[in-house]
Amino acid sequence: MGPDGRGAVLTGDRALLSVAQMAVADRLTVAGGTPVPVLMGAAGSAVARIIADRWSPGRVAVLCGPGDNGGDGFVVARRLAEAGWDVQLSLLGAPDRLTGAAAHNAALWTGPVAPLSPAVLEGATLIVDALFGAGLNRAPDRRVAALLAAAAAQAPIVAIDVPSGVMGDTGADLGAVAASLTITFFRKKPGHVLLPGRTLCGETVVADIGIAPSVLDRIAPQTWENGPDLWRDALPLLHPTGHKYTRGHALVWGGYPMTGAARLATRAAARAGAGLTSVAVPPQALPIYATALTSIMVRPVTGAEDLAALLSDGRITAHLIGPGAGVGDATRSTALAMLATGRAVVLDADALTSFAGDPAALDRAITGPCVMTPHDGEFARLWDTTGDKLHRARAAAARSGAVIVLKGADTVIAAPDGRAIVNTNAPPTLATAGSGDVLAGLVLGLLAQGMDAFDAAAAAVWMHGDAASRFGPGLIADDLPGLLPAVLRGLSA
Ligand SMILES: NC(=O)C1=CN([C@@H]2O[C@H](COP(=O)(O)OP(=O)(O)OC[C@H]3O[C@@H](n4cnc5c(N)ncnc54)[C@H](OP(=O)(O)O)[C@@H]3O)[C@@H](O)[C@H]2O)[C@@H](O)CC1
Ligand SMILES: Nc1ncnc2c1ncn2[C@@H]1O[C@H](COP(=O)(O)OP(=O)(O)O)[C@@H](O)[C@H]1O
Ligand SMILES: [K+]
Description:
By secondary structure, the chain is α/β, with parallel strands linked by helices. The protein has helices spanning 8-13, 19-31, 36-54, 68-82, 100-108, 142-154, 190-193, 197-201, 215-219, 260-271, 286-292, 303-311, 329-340, 349-353, 359-365, 376-382, 389-400, 435-448, 453-471, 479-492, and strands spanning 59-64, 86-91, 113-115, 126-130, 157-160, 181-185, 203-207, 223-225, 249-253, 276-281, 297-300, 318-321, 344-348, 370-373, 403-406, 412-414, 420-422.
């Protein structure tokens, strides 16, 4: 998905909208002739329909807040009562404080309105959380927090838009309890995919409430949830008449004595499709690498002149340094030499730490395609850690000019121009030593084949997660490269 808009139709499906962008979607829809009460009716009816599809009628406690999230709750209550549910509705605040569409739907509710208290949970087999959605602007008070805790202990919770207490823009938790199911409208928000919001949402379902996808043309989203639709068309193609050099030459800097990390990375680069993969190693490490690797070429490198000669080979299309490289001046100067080629570079692990406290050196040195793959600890040694994960990754990408892959269970991939992707396709089995080295090699292999840095990073993160999911429990990093053929086959199917 390049800036030329390639794949724009599909990428719209994966867009994540901020609370402010969602409000614009709302306004454009209203301006197009759909009144707010109709939108709210569609939202509440969709929630009731999804509930009725999954649960048989019972006693449901609908907890309504003072804004439009509460208004949705009134619609849900009405629809579930019509469907034969025993509905107990309770409201935070006085009914006469409701305004607009929420007041309209409250007036259509003919049942009793109880004040919010633990009594309303009695006997409930399901709870609908319609307290706060997009309008949450502070932590819920102690009374609301206690009620939410009691609700969680009583029955499954279905949250409307977000679990009350989760910030839609960031996924920050101001005091939410976990829902079983969260139903949101039109498109997800970052808070549905970033942690801890994603976990608190439980399963997230996006309901269509009649907002036309064409509003996205005006909103021009810059954030997406990762998936093949975003970058499948940019994956390297095989040419029937090609040869190994037309598939790119990936070079990994092989460290010593920690040789396993670079070996994992080289295998991943080769499996990702690089035509040639080489590992440059200090002479004393040559026997170790050469014994362990067969199709991967091992190049002994002694000193700066040797390195310069190696890097002057224009057939090397992408470089990686970091896994097992060691922290210090040698790694730093090798990374700078790689960056000076102007060809693609991946900086990971020790290569990042070798610039700790001096991000300006990277800002100056990065002139070509570059992907940096820090985990939170490595990130904190280099860049500002204030703000949410999307903000942090975007800020580091903007100042450095590199694509930043800020890793974790909710990996964020950010481009210098402001685009960002949040990955949700990664099982916790990836939390195993060396899996980050495989990821770095995967990015390298795709870059070596000429893929754009943002696309390559997003694709690699997704493929890494897919490989781990295919393996299941008991995964070690060594297993990952061997799973890539199945991942690639799945992508081309
Ligand atoms: N966009 C769409 O397309 C559609 C959106 N829809 C729905 O609208 C929802 C957004 O509605 P919304 O803007 O009225 O905000 P909402 O979440 O109800 O909260 C605002 C109220 O809560 C209050 N308040 C906030 N925090 C508080 C706290 N901690 N403790 C106590 N009070 C607190 C705040 O009060 P104040 O700050 O004024 O004191 C204000 O009164 C959205 O989530 C979705 O469900 C659908 O109906 C249709 C289509
Ligand atoms: N709980 C988790 N769920 C999903 N992915 C995870 C989780 N923990 C770690 N990962 C992923 O595993 C990889 C670990 O990389 P890293 O921390 O660099 O480890 P190492 O240095 O041991 O290779 C990253 O891609 C990260 O996003
Ligand atoms: K809610």
